[in-house]
Amino acid sequence: MSDALMNTYARADIAFERGEGPYLITREGDRYLDFASGIAVTSLGHAHPHLVKALQDQAARFWHCSNLFRIPEGERLAERLAANSFADRVFFCNSGVEAFEAAAKLVRKYFDDRGEADRWQVITCNGAFHGRSLTAISAAGNEKYMAGFAPHVPGFTQVAFEDPDELRAAITDETAAILVEPIQGEGGIRAPELDYLRALRQICDESGLLLVFDEIQCGMGRTGTLFAYEQAGIAPDIMMLAKGLGGGFPIGALLATEGVARSFGPGNHGTTFGGNPLAMACGNAVMDVMLEDGFLAQVQAVSRNLRGQLEDLVQRHPNVYAEVRGMGLLLGLRCAVPNTDVIAALRQKGLLTVGAGDNVVRLLPPLIITEAEVERAIGILNSVAEDFRQAAE
């Protein structure tokens, strides 16, 4: 590994040369079934022909012109996201944490425009993850990420996840918004009861607060609907997207209702690279596939099968796998042994996964996986559990 890279990642000593659908392949020809998807990013797998063509076609025309000029592909993607969500307006950026920063600014600007500049505090949840900027780690309040980066950015109050009573008690005259992941990813694939999300909407309506959903990881079809909030039959005022929206190309987006979005005018926020033609071509290509008839129904069907077989694994190997968590193809296995050991053992047998909090192994396959790939993954998970059982005897 190169000494020239900053030591910010504990990388596995594997380098991939190419990908095919749900597989990554090394120079030596070793094939890995990818149930990490670049941490829920490669939503349509690797080298999807429609995405490849869209990117190549745009790259042959031009790459960048900045937001000083119209970008028709960006206008089209914004219209499609608005037409298929609660939102009226979309702001494009380059990453999830940029979408978070835009959301944090929009909340403050909204109340300032209303003559309520003293309302600027945001309630967040323990176990949350909203990105790595100073503001984002302060919002989540996780000491693992905050250590060494004091002083922390003010303006955020953390409460217990899935506890509406504690959240209500935390509201003050300075509270402006509630920010929640509909399903916590980094925090351990914690999927609350849908009534919790409905309670958040009710609390915001009663208290005049904005409801902000972080769907950076759980959005874009991963739960079986285009957006996770749809599962609860409610809608936020603001939503953050990234990861799966570009299918692997860096892209982030902030979505909002007209009444909130109008607080951003020219000069209030911006980005040099955000919404560039390459990213917009990829985003539209992803939407082409996800909006096809039957695509999300297939995600739901495959996810039901995968979850059912994972539940069976927990029953058969409780000393290794303790609990199945999540929704759709955003799933996690809480482990009874160190999750890092499980992840390494799975990788040795050709299955790529990623860790999460609470000793969880995240299972984030591309949304195009088939039943055959589910069977292969379950076989590897079972084999690893057998190895742990034998080692313990």
In short:
The chain has 393 residues and is of the alpha/beta class.
- DSSP strand count: 15
The coarse overall form would be globular
Rg calc: 21 Å
By helix and strand content, what is the structural category? alpha/beta
Q: Which consecutive residue ranges, at least 5 long each, have pLDDT under 50?
A: none
Let me know the largest β-sheet: 7 strands, mixed
- The span between the termini is 37 Å
Number of helices: 13
Q: Helix amount, in percent?
A: 25-40%
What kind of assembly state do the chains in view correspond to? single chain
Average pLDDT taken over every residue: 97
Largest beta sheet: strand ordering: 4-10-9-8-7-5-6
Proportion of beta-strand residues? 15-25%
What sequence of helices (H) and strands (E) makes up the elements?
Answer: EEEHHHEHEHHEHEHEEEHHHEEHEEEH
Account of the 3D structure:
This protein starts with 15 loop residues before the first strand and ends with a helix. Helices cover 38% and strands 18% of the residues. It has helices at 37-40, 49-61, 72-83, 96-113, 134-140, 143-146, 164-170, 194-207, 258-261, 277-290, 295-316, 339-348, 371-392, and strands spanning 16-20, 23-26, 31-34, 89-93, 121-125, 156-159, 175-180, 210-214, 238-241, 252-256, 321-327, 330-335, 351-352, 354-356, 360-363. The model has no long low-confidence stretch (mean pLDDT 97). With 393 residues, the chain is an alpha/beta fold. It is globular. Helix 2 packs antiparallel against helix 10, helix 3 (72-83) packs parallel to helix 10 and helix 11 packs parallel to helix 13 (371-392). It contains 13 helices and 15 strands.
